Amino acid sequence: MFTCRAVHSVTGFCSCRSDYLGSLLCLSCPPSGSFAYLTIKDRLPQILTKAIDTLHRHKSEFFEKHGEKGMEAEKKAISLLSKLRNESQTDKPIIPFVEKFADTDIWNQYLEYQQSLLNDTDEKPRWFYSPWLFVECYAYRRIHEAVIQSPPIDDFDVFKEAKEQNFFESLESITALCIHLQELMTTIEDLEENQLKNEFFKLLQISLWGNKCDLSLSGGETSSQKTNIINTLEDLKPFILVNDMEHLWSLLSNCKKTREKVSVTRVDIVLDNSGFELVTDLVLADFLLFSNLATEIHFYGKMIPWFVSDTTIHDFNWVIEQVKHCDHKWVSKCGVDWENYVKMGKWVYHDHIFWTGPHEFCAMFHVAPDLYAELQKAHLILFKGDLNYRKLTGDRKWEFTVPFHRALNGFHPAPLCSIRTLKAEIQVGLRPGQGEQLTASEPNWLTTGKYGIFQFDGPL
Ligand SMILES: O=P(O)(O)OC[C@@]1(O)O[C@H](CO)[C@@H](O)[C@@H]1O
Ligand SMILES: [Mn+2]
User: Fold this and answer.
1) C-beta atoms surrounding 18 within 10 Å
2) Ligand closest in space to the Cα of 137
3) Which atom of ligand 1 is nearest to the CA of 424?
4) Which atom of ligand 1 is nearest to the CA of 43?
5) CB environment 422-452: b (16+ within 10 A), e (fewer)
6) Radius of gyration of the chain from Cα atoms?
7) How far is CA 412 from the centre of its chain?
8) Which candidate, 78, 53, 80, places its Cα nearest to that of 159?
């Protein structure tokens, strides 16, 4: 029986049996609560209240579109979200999903698994006494259930406004980034190998720090990119705790050198937040194509609204459309190019229900073999963001020095790299003493989003 991160557990242990050896330490959550506890106790209710408020503010739109039925639906969705807020705030038992959806059975089987771990007690899985990763994902899946149980507004994205606001508030930085990309495009042919590598590293770092714009961390409060991120990279370098960018360069530049034999170089990007972060990822993807470091890019978003700011297919298309219609010619050219990449099949967007399920990634081979097989076609997979890191490493309280490869527990469809700012109490692959030193100098270094990593797990 191994332990993992509990939301809040007075015994200091939650029972989450894992079927692999790992240096697992449980996070005993002191009464003040860990970051996990504060997320569920304080931040989640804030996010639910904002979702309820959004529904309220769209009441007349629902009436215009659907008449009385729209009003009824708004009332129903609000009452379901209010019930969810009460359950989470008062540590009620976690209840099964009732509305038919692609993964209802998978979620309920996982809930039964959580129940089986408590079998020697008559306890039910509860909000404050279950693994944080499970509880937080469950909460967002319950938000989705509340909406799909309220037709005809069952396709409403309660987070859409916040994601769009993030984009518009970041427009200055987006413009600067697109201009930078277009200028780079005009000089790319004259760049020496080393210069090309440095440009690649710049855009990787921009994609990394774009991950700070995370609306779940901010509790739904605005978290846009207001400064020109390109000018801040040098100052931010000391905050990169693990820097495997050289591995990414050597992998892709070798693919480029052997292009005659291997005609395709595919980079897969498992996306995170929409808005500014998504633009940084699309800029990186564009550069990978026109620098010839890759020949096709595959993107993975979320099938349902997720963790407030995560990207759905609607967000992906909306951002490209917005960039295309920007009144700055260089920005608009980016949008036109990106739309053409999609049309030509050089950019491919994939949806899969696994990404919004309860499982950590080491279960993917068994739970979603089709997705695992798809990822195996990539030469390199970039996992953006903190939640992906938690699912890559099983959100266990590993020792800081445990090798990344070990924490992945056999998940390795292809060479992969986590590009993540730290917003949860988990980090592996550090040097001896590095974690302790940070804790001594900055107790909250794991959760502020101020530090970042490029953590690579290469060819076996
Ligand atoms: O995956 P992202 O967008 O980088 O971050 C998501 C996230 O930081 O938001 C929550 C903040 O409490 C965490 O649970 C989760 O890891
Ligand atoms: Mn996110």
Assistant:
1) 16
2) 1
3) 16
4) 12
5) bbbbbbbbbeeeebeebeeeeeebbbebebb
6) 22
7) 18
8) 53
Q: Where are the alpha helices (DSSP H) in 95-244?
A: 104-116, 132-148, 160-169, 171-187, 193-210, 233-236
Q: How many CB atoms lie within 10 A of CB 170?
A: 25
Out of 35-44, 310-319, 403-412, 425-434, which region has the weakest mean confidence (pLDDT)? 35-44
| CB-facing half-sphere around the CA of 346: CA atoms within 13 A | 16
Closest C-alpha to ligand 1, atom 5 = 386
Q: Is the preceding peptide bond at 369 cis, omega within 30 degrees of 0? A: no
Angle at 13 between CA 389 and CA 30, to 5 degrees: 85
Comparing C-alpha atoms, which of 379, 359, 386 is closest to residue 272?
386
Domains parsed from the chain with CATH numbers:
35-148 (1.20.930.60), 160-457 (3.40.50.10880)
Q: State the distance from the centre of ligand 1 to the C-alpha of 400, rounded, in angstroms.
A: 19
| Ligand 2 geometric centre to CA of 212 (Å) | 9
pLDDT band at 208 (very low <50, low <70, confident <90, very high): very high
For the chain, percent of residues with pLDDT exceeding 90: 81
The Cα 394–Cα 392 span in angstroms is 6
What pLDDT does 18 receive?
A: 37
Residues with CB under 6 A from ligand 1: 39, 43, 136, 211, 214, 216-217, 272-273, 307, 385-387, 390, 423-424
Secondary structure (3-state) at 124: coil
What is the three-class DSSP state of 454?
strand
The pLDDT assigned to 21 comes to 30
CA 59-65-71 angle, 5° bins: 40
Rounded to whole angstroms, the Cα distance separating 81 from 47 reads 10
Q: Bridge-partner residues for 455, per DSSP?
A: 418
Q: How far apart are CA 337 and CA 319, in angstroms?
A: 13
Q: What is the dihedral of CA 233, 349, 255, 285, to 10 degrees?
A: -30
pTM (global) more than 0.80: yes
Probe residue for ligand 1, chosen from 423, 426, 453 as the CB with the greatest number of ligand atoms within 8 Å: 423
**Integer Cα distance of 52 and 175 in angstroms:** 33
| Interface ipTM | 0.96
Residue 421 confidence (pLDDT) above 70? yes
Best of 42, 88, 213, 217 to mutate for ligand 1, by most ligand atoms within 8 A of CB? 217
In whole angstroms, give the CA distance from residue 364 to residue 19. Answer: 14
Ligand 2 centroid distance, CA of 140 (Å): 12
For residue 130, the 8-state DSSP code is: S
